[in-house]
Amino acid sequence: MLKGKKILVGISGGIAAYKVCSLIRLFVKNGADVRVIMTPSAVNFVSPLTLSVLSKNEVIINMFPENKDLSKAEKVGAGTWHINLGIWADVFLIAPATANTISKIYAGISDNFLLSVALASRCPVILAPTMDEDMYCNKITRRNIEGLKSFGFKVIDPVEGELASGLFGKGKMPEPQSILDFTAKILNPKKDLGGIKVLISAGPTQEPIDAVRYISNYSSGRMGFELARAAKERGADVTLITGPVHLHEAPGVKRINVKTSSEMLDAVRKNFRNKELVIMSAAVSDFTPVKLSDKKLKKEELGTNFSLKLKKTEDILRYLGDNKDGFKLIGFALETDKGIENARKKLREKNLDVIVLNNPLESGAGFISETNIAVLIDNKNIVKLPKMSKYELGNMILDYYLKNL
User: Fold this and answer.
1) Distance CA 200, CA 183 (A)
2) CA atoms of 126 and 289, how far apart (whole Å)
3) pTM (2 decimals)?
Protein backbone atom coordinates (compact mmCIF):
# COMPACT_ATOMS: atom_id res chain seq x y z
CA MET A 1 0.00 0.00 0.00
CA LEU A 2 2.76 2.45 0.98
CA LYS A 3 5.88 0.67 -0.23
CA GLY A 4 8.54 3.19 -1.18
CA LYS A 5 6.45 6.17 -0.11
CA LYS A 6 8.18 8.92 1.88
CA ILE A 7 5.99 10.17 4.72
CA LEU A 8 6.89 13.13 6.88
CA VAL A 9 4.97 13.16 10.18
CA GLY A 10 4.66 16.42 12.11
CA ILE A 11 3.50 16.31 15.72
CA SER A 12 2.23 19.39 17.51
CA GLY A 13 1.56 19.73 21.23
CA GLY A 14 -1.67 17.90 21.97
CA ILE A 15 -2.57 14.98 24.21
CA ALA A 16 -3.38 12.85 21.16
CA ALA A 17 0.33 12.81 20.27
CA TYR A 18 0.61 9.42 21.97
CA LYS A 19 -1.49 7.88 19.18
CA VAL A 20 1.18 8.77 16.64
CA CYS A 21 3.39 5.95 17.96
CA SER A 22 0.90 3.37 16.66
CA LEU A 23 0.44 5.33 13.45
CA ILE A 24 4.17 5.35 12.69
CA ARG A 25 4.34 1.60 13.29
CA LEU A 26 1.53 1.14 10.76
CA PHE A 27 3.28 3.35 8.20
CA VAL A 28 6.56 1.43 8.58
CA LYS A 29 4.77 -1.92 8.54
CA ASN A 30 3.21 -0.97 5.20
CA GLY A 31 6.58 -0.18 3.66
CA ALA A 32 6.83 3.59 4.08
CA ASP A 33 9.99 5.54 4.84
CA VAL A 34 9.00 7.74 7.79
CA ARG A 35 10.64 10.82 9.27
CA VAL A 36 9.27 12.69 12.27
CA ILE A 37 9.40 16.32 13.30
CA MET A 38 7.94 17.76 16.49
CA THR A 39 7.13 21.14 17.94
CA PRO A 40 8.96 21.92 21.20
CA SER A 41 5.69 21.55 23.12
CA ALA A 42 4.98 18.12 21.59
CA VAL A 43 7.90 16.58 23.51
CA ASN A 44 5.83 17.04 26.67
CA PHE A 45 3.34 14.46 25.41
CA VAL A 46 5.49 11.81 23.69
CA SER A 47 9.18 10.91 23.81
CA PRO A 48 11.34 11.78 20.77
CA LEU A 49 13.41 8.67 21.54
CA THR A 50 10.34 6.44 21.20
CA LEU A 51 9.45 8.03 17.87
CA SER A 52 13.04 7.74 16.66
CA VAL A 53 13.11 4.01 17.43
CA LEU A 54 9.75 3.42 15.73
CA SER A 55 10.57 5.46 12.61
CA LYS A 56 14.20 4.29 12.45
CA ASN A 57 15.21 7.92 11.85
CA GLU A 58 16.33 10.85 13.93
CA VAL A 59 13.49 13.03 15.21
CA ILE A 60 13.91 16.72 14.46
CA ILE A 61 12.60 19.33 16.89
CA ASN A 62 14.62 22.49 16.41
CA MET A 63 15.70 24.39 13.34
CA PHE A 64 19.32 24.22 14.45
CA PRO A 65 20.85 21.02 15.90
CA GLU A 66 21.73 21.05 19.57
CA ASN A 67 24.99 19.17 18.98
CA LYS A 68 27.89 19.60 16.60
CA ASP A 69 27.55 16.19 14.96
CA LEU A 70 25.39 16.74 11.91
CA SER A 71 26.29 13.45 10.22
CA LYS A 72 22.89 11.91 10.92
CA ALA A 73 21.17 14.83 9.26
CA GLU A 74 23.24 14.81 6.06
CA LYS A 75 20.66 12.86 4.10
CA VAL A 76 18.14 15.65 4.47
CA GLY A 77 20.63 18.51 4.54
CA ALA A 78 21.50 20.05 7.90
CA GLY A 79 21.10 23.79 7.99
CA THR A 80 18.49 23.86 5.24
CA TRP A 81 16.74 20.65 6.21
CA HIS A 82 13.36 22.37 6.49
CA ILE A 83 13.66 22.98 2.73
CA ASN A 84 15.10 19.56 1.95
CA LEU A 85 12.50 17.70 4.01
CA GLY A 86 9.75 19.58 2.20
CA ILE A 87 11.21 18.42 -1.09
CA TRP A 88 11.96 14.88 0.13
CA ALA A 89 8.46 13.97 1.33
CA ASP A 90 5.67 12.52 -0.79
CA VAL A 91 3.20 13.66 1.84
CA PHE A 92 3.40 15.72 5.03
CA LEU A 93 0.98 14.65 7.76
CA ILE A 94 0.48 16.90 10.81
CA ALA A 95 -1.19 14.89 13.55
CA PRO A 96 -2.32 16.07 15.94
CA ALA A 97 -2.78 19.51 14.38
CA THR A 98 -3.68 21.82 17.25
CA ALA A 99 -5.71 25.01 16.91
CA ASN A 100 -2.51 26.96 17.49
CA THR A 101 -0.59 25.18 14.72
CA ILE A 102 -3.50 25.46 12.29
CA SER A 103 -3.91 29.18 12.92
CA LYS A 104 -0.19 29.81 12.46
CA ILE A 105 -0.06 27.90 9.17
CA TYR A 106 -3.07 29.85 7.92
CA ALA A 107 -1.37 33.12 8.89
CA GLY A 108 1.96 32.09 7.33
CA ILE A 109 3.81 32.12 10.65
CA SER A 110 6.92 29.92 10.87
CA ASP A 111 8.29 30.34 14.38
CA ASN A 112 9.19 26.68 14.84
CA PHE A 113 10.68 23.98 12.66
CA LEU A 114 7.41 22.20 11.91
CA LEU A 115 5.79 25.42 10.68
CA SER A 116 8.82 26.20 8.52
CA VAL A 117 8.51 22.82 6.84
CA ALA A 118 4.77 23.37 6.32
CA LEU A 119 5.56 26.53 4.34
CA ALA A 120 8.42 24.89 2.42
CA SER A 121 6.63 21.67 1.45
CA ARG A 122 5.94 20.90 -2.19
CA CYS A 123 3.96 17.77 -1.40
CA PRO A 124 0.34 17.44 -0.22
CA VAL A 125 -0.07 18.48 3.42
CA ILE A 126 -2.62 16.61 5.56
CA LEU A 127 -3.98 18.13 8.75
CA ALA A 128 -5.65 16.13 11.50
CA PRO A 129 -7.33 18.86 13.61
CA THR A 130 -7.44 17.71 17.23
CA MET A 131 -8.70 19.82 20.11
CA ASP A 132 -11.61 20.37 22.46
CA GLU A 133 -14.99 20.72 20.74
CA ASP A 134 -15.42 24.37 21.70
CA MET A 135 -12.06 25.20 20.13
CA TYR A 136 -12.87 23.18 17.01
CA CYS A 137 -16.28 24.86 16.57
CA ASN A 138 -14.92 28.35 17.19
CA LYS A 139 -15.54 30.54 14.15
CA ILE A 140 -11.87 31.49 13.94
CA THR A 141 -10.78 27.85 13.86
CA ARG A 142 -13.45 27.02 11.27
CA ARG A 143 -12.30 29.94 9.11
CA ASN A 144 -8.68 28.80 9.34
CA ILE A 145 -9.51 25.20 8.42
CA GLU A 146 -11.74 26.20 5.51
CA GLY A 147 -9.12 28.65 4.32
CA LEU A 148 -6.40 26.00 4.35
CA LYS A 149 -8.70 23.64 2.43
CA SER A 150 -9.07 26.32 -0.24
CA PHE A 151 -5.25 26.50 -0.44
CA GLY A 152 -5.14 22.76 -1.19
CA PHE A 153 -4.46 21.36 2.28
CA LYS A 154 -6.11 18.00 2.96
CA VAL A 155 -8.07 17.70 6.20
CA ILE A 156 -9.11 14.52 7.97
CA ASP A 157 -12.00 15.51 10.21
CA PRO A 158 -11.90 14.76 13.93
CA VAL A 159 -14.39 12.31 15.40
CA GLU A 160 -16.74 12.43 18.35
CA GLY A 161 -15.68 10.92 21.65
CA GLU A 162 -14.48 11.62 25.15
CA LEU A 163 -12.06 14.53 25.08
CA ALA A 164 -9.14 15.38 27.35
CA SER A 165 -11.36 17.89 29.15
CA GLY A 166 -13.64 15.05 30.21
CA LEU A 167 -16.42 16.34 27.96
CA PHE A 168 -17.92 14.35 25.10
CA GLY A 169 -17.91 15.96 21.69
CA LYS A 170 -16.19 16.41 18.34
CA GLY A 171 -12.46 17.09 18.31
CA LYS A 172 -10.90 13.69 18.94
CA MET A 173 -8.16 12.53 16.58
CA PRO A 174 -9.24 9.55 14.43
CA GLU A 175 -7.71 6.16 15.14
CA PRO A 176 -4.36 5.39 13.46
CA GLN A 177 -5.90 3.00 10.91
CA SER A 178 -8.31 5.70 9.71
CA ILE A 179 -5.45 8.16 9.30
CA LEU A 180 -3.38 5.56 7.44
CA ASP A 181 -6.29 4.88 5.05
CA PHE A 182 -6.78 8.62 4.46
CA THR A 183 -3.06 9.12 3.81
CA ALA A 184 -2.95 6.16 1.44
CA LYS A 185 -5.75 7.68 -0.63
CA ILE A 186 -3.80 10.93 -0.92
CA LEU A 187 -0.65 9.06 -1.95
CA ASN A 188 -2.53 6.83 -4.39
CA PRO A 189 -5.30 9.10 -5.66
CA LYS A 190 -8.08 7.83 -7.88
CA LYS A 191 -8.18 9.54 -11.25
CA ASP A 192 -11.24 7.62 -12.39
CA LEU A 193 -13.10 10.79 -13.40
CA GLY A 194 -10.29 12.02 -15.64
CA GLY A 195 -11.70 14.13 -18.47
CA ILE A 196 -15.32 13.87 -17.29
CA LYS A 197 -17.13 17.22 -17.23
CA VAL A 198 -19.23 17.71 -14.12
CA LEU A 199 -21.70 20.45 -13.19
CA ILE A 200 -22.62 20.84 -9.50
CA SER A 201 -24.94 23.28 -7.74
CA ALA A 202 -24.60 24.22 -4.08
CA GLY A 203 -25.90 26.44 -1.33
CA PRO A 204 -29.12 28.37 -0.83
CA THR A 205 -30.74 31.01 -2.97
CA GLN A 206 -31.94 34.38 -1.69
CA GLU A 207 -35.27 35.74 -2.95
CA PRO A 208 -35.45 39.50 -2.24
CA ILE A 209 -38.50 41.04 -0.57
CA ASP A 210 -37.25 44.61 -0.47
CA ALA A 211 -33.93 46.46 -0.42
CA VAL A 212 -32.78 44.76 2.81
CA ARG A 213 -34.81 41.54 3.30
CA TYR A 214 -35.00 38.22 1.53
CA ILE A 215 -36.39 34.68 1.79
CA SER A 216 -33.83 31.89 2.10
CA ASN A 217 -33.05 28.66 3.97
CA TYR A 218 -30.40 27.14 6.23
CA SER A 219 -28.24 25.55 3.51
CA SER A 220 -24.51 25.98 4.17
CA GLY A 221 -23.44 24.76 0.71
CA ARG A 222 -20.99 22.30 2.25
CA MET A 223 -22.39 19.21 0.53
CA GLY A 224 -22.00 20.72 -2.94
CA PHE A 225 -18.54 22.10 -2.20
CA GLU A 226 -17.35 18.72 -0.90
CA LEU A 227 -18.78 17.04 -3.99
CA ALA A 228 -16.86 19.50 -6.15
CA ARG A 229 -13.66 18.91 -4.18
CA ALA A 230 -13.98 15.14 -4.44
CA ALA A 231 -14.71 15.25 -8.17
CA LYS A 232 -11.81 17.59 -8.87
CA GLU A 233 -9.39 15.44 -6.88
CA ARG A 234 -10.48 12.45 -8.99
CA GLY A 235 -9.63 14.23 -12.22
CA ALA A 236 -12.96 15.73 -13.29
CA ASP A 237 -13.43 19.09 -15.00
CA VAL A 238 -15.75 20.71 -12.44
CA THR A 239 -18.05 23.71 -12.71
CA LEU A 240 -19.69 24.78 -9.43
CA ILE A 241 -22.72 27.07 -9.38
CA THR A 242 -23.28 28.34 -5.86
CA GLY A 243 -25.62 30.57 -3.95
CA PRO A 244 -24.30 32.89 -1.20
CA VAL A 245 -22.07 30.87 1.15
CA HIS A 246 -18.94 31.39 3.23
CA LEU A 247 -16.92 28.55 1.72
CA HIS A 248 -13.87 28.27 -0.52
CA GLU A 249 -13.91 26.09 -3.62
CA ALA A 250 -11.19 23.50 -4.23
CA PRO A 251 -8.26 24.62 -6.41
CA GLY A 252 -9.06 24.23 -10.09
CA VAL A 253 -12.86 24.29 -9.71
CA LYS A 254 -14.64 26.84 -11.91
CA ARG A 255 -16.96 28.76 -9.57
CA ILE A 256 -20.03 30.74 -10.63
CA ASN A 257 -21.69 32.86 -7.92
CA VAL A 258 -25.42 33.55 -7.99
CA LYS A 259 -27.99 34.83 -5.50
CA THR A 260 -31.54 34.19 -6.68
CA SER A 261 -33.22 31.06 -8.04
CA SER A 262 -33.64 32.78 -11.42
CA GLU A 263 -29.91 33.56 -11.51
CA MET A 264 -29.12 29.93 -10.67
CA LEU A 265 -31.45 28.71 -13.41
CA ASP A 266 -29.81 31.06 -15.91
CA ALA A 267 -26.35 29.80 -14.91
CA VAL A 268 -27.49 26.18 -15.23
CA ARG A 269 -28.94 26.84 -18.70
CA LYS A 270 -25.64 28.32 -19.83
CA ASN A 271 -23.45 25.54 -18.41
CA PHE A 272 -25.21 22.15 -18.52
CA ARG A 273 -24.50 21.42 -22.18
CA ASN A 274 -21.64 19.02 -22.97
CA LYS A 275 -21.54 17.71 -19.38
CA GLU A 276 -21.44 14.00 -18.59
CA LEU A 277 -22.67 14.37 -15.01
CA VAL A 278 -24.91 16.98 -13.39
CA ILE A 279 -25.44 16.96 -9.60
CA MET A 280 -27.94 19.41 -8.15
CA SER A 281 -27.35 19.68 -4.41
CA ALA A 282 -28.42 23.33 -4.05
CA ALA A 283 -31.38 24.18 -1.82
CA VAL A 284 -33.25 26.35 -4.31
CA SER A 285 -36.13 28.44 -2.97
CA ASP A 286 -39.50 27.08 -4.10
CA PHE A 287 -41.15 30.48 -3.86
CA THR A 288 -40.24 34.09 -4.54
CA PRO A 289 -42.11 37.34 -3.81
CA VAL A 290 -44.46 38.47 -6.56
CA LYS A 291 -43.42 42.06 -6.11
CA LEU A 292 -40.01 43.44 -5.12
CA SER A 293 -39.77 46.78 -3.39
CA ASP A 294 -36.68 48.77 -4.30
CA LYS A 295 -36.87 50.48 -0.91
CA LYS A 296 -37.01 49.12 2.63
CA LEU A 297 -40.59 48.34 3.66
CA LYS A 298 -41.34 50.25 6.88
CA LYS A 299 -43.25 48.34 9.52
CA GLU A 300 -45.23 51.45 10.39
CA GLU A 301 -46.58 51.51 6.83
CA LEU A 302 -47.35 47.78 6.71
CA GLY A 303 -49.59 47.70 9.76
CA THR A 304 -50.01 44.97 12.37
CA ASN A 305 -50.67 42.17 9.90
CA PHE A 306 -48.63 41.94 6.73
CA SER A 307 -49.19 39.39 3.97
CA LEU A 308 -46.44 38.61 1.50
CA LYS A 309 -47.69 37.32 -1.84
CA LEU A 310 -45.47 34.60 -3.33
CA LYS A 311 -45.22 32.78 -6.64
CA LYS A 312 -43.49 29.51 -7.49
CA THR A 313 -39.96 29.61 -8.85
CA GLU A 314 -39.11 27.61 -11.94
CA ASP A 315 -38.04 24.07 -11.02
CA ILE A 316 -34.37 23.77 -12.06
CA LEU A 317 -34.22 20.02 -11.50
CA ARG A 318 -37.32 19.46 -13.63
CA TYR A 319 -35.86 21.68 -16.34
CA LEU A 320 -32.73 19.54 -16.44
CA GLY A 321 -34.75 16.31 -16.42
CA ASP A 322 -36.78 17.58 -19.38
CA ASN A 323 -33.65 18.56 -21.27
CA LYS A 324 -31.36 15.60 -20.65
CA ASP A 325 -28.96 15.28 -23.52
CA GLY A 326 -26.39 12.57 -22.86
CA PHE A 327 -25.70 13.46 -19.21
CA LYS A 328 -26.60 11.65 -16.01
CA LEU A 329 -28.63 13.64 -13.50
CA ILE A 330 -28.40 13.30 -9.72
CA GLY A 331 -30.68 15.26 -7.42
CA PHE A 332 -31.19 15.62 -3.68
CA ALA A 333 -34.33 15.18 -1.59
CA LEU A 334 -34.64 16.66 1.89
CA GLU A 335 -37.56 14.91 3.57
CA THR A 336 -38.77 14.79 7.17
CA ASP A 337 -41.42 12.08 6.69
CA LYS A 338 -42.25 9.39 4.11
CA GLY A 339 -38.73 9.90 2.88
CA ILE A 340 -38.26 6.99 0.49
CA GLU A 341 -41.78 7.28 -0.89
CA ASN A 342 -41.41 11.00 -1.60
CA ALA A 343 -37.87 10.60 -2.96
CA ARG A 344 -38.92 7.88 -5.43
CA LYS A 345 -41.79 10.08 -6.62
CA LYS A 346 -39.33 12.93 -7.21
CA LEU A 347 -36.96 10.53 -9.00
CA ARG A 348 -39.71 9.56 -11.48
CA GLU A 349 -41.33 12.95 -11.97
CA LYS A 350 -38.10 14.82 -12.60
CA ASN A 351 -36.44 12.14 -14.74
CA LEU A 352 -33.47 11.66 -12.43
CA ASP A 353 -30.95 8.82 -12.61
CA VAL A 354 -30.23 8.90 -8.86
CA ILE A 355 -31.67 10.80 -5.93
CA VAL A 356 -29.86 11.35 -2.63
CA LEU A 357 -32.29 11.32 0.29
CA ASN A 358 -31.52 12.81 3.70
CA ASN A 359 -33.53 13.84 6.75
CA PRO A 360 -32.47 17.07 8.51
CA LEU A 361 -34.09 15.87 11.75
CA GLU A 362 -31.60 13.01 12.11
CA SER A 363 -28.65 13.66 14.39
CA GLY A 364 -25.55 14.19 12.26
CA ALA A 365 -27.48 15.13 9.10
CA GLY A 366 -28.88 18.29 7.59
CA PHE A 367 -27.70 21.67 6.38
CA ILE A 368 -25.36 22.92 9.10
CA SER A 369 -23.79 19.58 10.05
CA GLU A 370 -20.39 18.61 8.64
CA THR A 371 -21.65 15.03 8.39
CA ASN A 372 -24.64 13.53 6.62
CA ILE A 373 -26.77 10.38 6.63
CA ALA A 374 -28.02 9.55 3.16
CA VAL A 375 -29.92 6.99 1.11
CA LEU A 376 -29.03 6.57 -2.57
CA ILE A 377 -32.07 5.65 -4.67
CA ASP A 378 -32.41 4.81 -8.36
CA ASN A 379 -35.02 2.90 -10.34
CA LYS A 380 -33.78 -0.46 -9.03
CA ASN A 381 -31.80 0.08 -5.84
CA ILE A 382 -32.08 1.61 -2.38
CA VAL A 383 -28.69 1.94 -0.67
CA LYS A 384 -28.70 3.17 2.93
CA LEU A 385 -25.42 4.73 4.03
CA PRO A 386 -24.15 5.30 7.59
CA LYS A 387 -23.24 8.70 8.98
CA MET A 388 -20.11 10.05 7.31
CA SER A 389 -18.47 13.34 6.46
CA LYS A 390 -19.92 15.19 3.49
CA TYR A 391 -16.61 14.73 1.69
CA GLU A 392 -16.88 10.96 2.16
CA LEU A 393 -20.50 11.06 0.99
CA GLY A 394 -19.42 13.04 -2.05
CA ASN A 395 -16.99 10.28 -2.95
CA MET A 396 -19.67 7.62 -2.34
CA ILE A 397 -21.99 9.41 -4.76
CA LEU A 398 -19.22 9.56 -7.38
CA ASP A 399 -18.43 5.87 -6.81
CA TYR A 400 -22.11 5.07 -7.34
CA TYR A 401 -22.14 7.07 -10.58
CA LEU A 402 -19.12 5.19 -11.93
CA LYS A 403 -20.42 1.77 -10.89
CA ASN A 404 -24.08 2.06 -11.83
CA LEU A 405 -24.50 4.84 -14.38
Assistant:
1) 26
2) 46
3) 0.76
